[in-house]
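Continuing the batch. This is chain 6 of the set; chains 1 through 5 are on the previous pages. Same settings as before, nothing changed between runs. Recording input and output for traceability.
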Amino acid sequence: MDKVEQQYYQQQQALIDDIQKGIALNRDLLVLRELLLSYKYNGMTQNIMRDCLNQLRAMEDENTILDLLDFVEGFCSLDWKIYP
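Output for chain 6:
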């Protein structure tokens, strides 16, 4: 694995860990959305973010994960979309 691939992997794992911690701490959905935005601003693509959230569906609160996926996919109001 080259250095760039390793960075992407670490970023993905960090997002998964952060979402798991947020759910465990009963963070508000909008707080978790802000977390997703921070990863977007740090270069995470929509596809990678979607893949990370889909990995969490079986392990975490599926309803929360599906709500977060709605923000990523754009199944929400325009003001709440994470990606155009």
